Amino acid sequence: MMNPKKIIYLFLCSFFVLFFSCKKTNNNESLSELSHQKKHLKPNIIVIIADDAGYLDFGFMGSKDLNTPNIDNLAQSGVMFSDAHVTASVCAPSRAGLITGRYQQRFGFEANGTGYGDSGDIGLSNDVVTIADVLKKNNYKTIAIGKWHLGATPSDHPNQRGFDEFYGFLAGGRSYFPLKNPSKELRLQQNGKRVTFDGYLTDVLGDRSVSFVEENKDQPFFMYLAYNAVHTPMEAKESDLLKYKNHPRQYLAAMTWSLDENIGKLRNKLKELNILDNTLIYFISDNGGAHNNSSESGPLKGWKGNKFEGGHRVPFIMSWPDQIKPNQKFDGLTSSLDIFTTSMAAAQIKPDEELILDGVNLLPYINNEKQGNPHQELYWRKLEESAARIGDFKLINLKDFGSTMYNLSFDLGEIEDISSQDTATYHELLKKFSIWEANMIAPHWREGKPWEDVTYYIHQRLMENKPVLYKEPRNKK
Q1: What's the pLDDT score for residue 258?
Q2: Does residue 141 share a domain with residue 92?
Q3: CATH for 182
Q4: Exposure string (b/e) for 160-184, b if CB count within 10 Å is 16 or more?
Q5: What is the predicted pLDDT for the residue at 40?
Q6: Is residue 289 over pLDDT 60?
Q7: Half-sphere exposure of 39 (CA within 13 A, CB side)
Q8: φ and ψ at 300, to 5 degrees?
Q9: What is residue 233's predicted lDDT score, i.e. its pLDDT?
Q10: What is the DSSP letter of 313?
Q11: Are residues 239 and 271 in the same domain?
Q12: Is 306 in the same domain as 447?
């Protein structure tokens, strides 16, 4: 007969084996369920826009003299796009394309500003849908922070364009320090009510980004965080100017440092609240570097305001730790148009059938589910200047002057015009641009003869590879 103690021992062993086996199964089931829930949890979405930043002016883009550790960390946490473009080389139409996911020429928002002369302040067409409209409709809390520059009339106020809150200013630029008697367009406001502040505007906007996250940490949110840095006027905090007192680009370095600090502040808050991993963050510049803010474009020709690569090829980052592998570089052709479409896919929102977007969902490409270029073609037009990109070939048109064509695969600086060498490709680009243009409408406003004449002159000189002798109407000889 078996010893009673041995019987009890075997019983206890069997019990614990069964108990821990069940516990392990339950744990695995719980982990599987958590993973399933996490996969279907709507991400927070943040679009961070820098203003007039140079292509080379961030560490992750190769800058050796500007310090951007937080933006560099953001790039390392996701994917950096090396061939990314905005839809315009100037502020307002570029933002119109980004926020609607459509070529802004489809609704007449082609020139800079939001209306000129007798046309008044037209801004965004009333029938245009923004990314905030769609996300708000799908239970996202929405906020626009910083520079708007898409219209200052009541119908164009951010609160009427899908944003629950607007904390910013309506104009295209303003001082970084408090103004005594600002106009309606220049004043800092919160949903139409003036906000007075002390200190430096980049910090003030950064602080609101942090407090908004704290207030909405338990629900999906969309933040359109449009800094006016590093747009002129070139103004910085004394402490930052002192930090860069011997820097050859002192003001730009100080302003960029402040921008970077505030982006870091936001990411740290997301991490502290344990929501960083499920937050989809984009970082992009609204156009190329300006000629008057000491920005650098590296190998690119041109700058803000023209159709050469320096005007519209921009730094672009996308980070979403839960879904995107870190330390990636993507060389395919991408556009700011893709932000709207990609965000819809990330949030598992099916756009209404009548909503036609020109962007592409980038997620399958960066997750190796699709190969190749998200775009085979991209187009640009602002009044007399236009351009087309088909594969590696780039066409630049100047009305009543002519066209040039470049192969960017070996001529990123757009120096050698090959239009007469490869006439078949040249005529193909002209034809495709003509087809695209036929689907656009005429601009609702212009920019005024002084600026239009200067822009025309700059394009002509760059197309001829000649020095540009003046860049603003006041400097015209």
Answers
A1: 98
A2: yes
A3: 3.40.720.10
A4: ebbbbbbbbbbbbbbebeeeeebee
A5: 58
A6: yes
A7: 6
A8: -85, 145
A9: 98
A10: B
A11: yes
A12: no
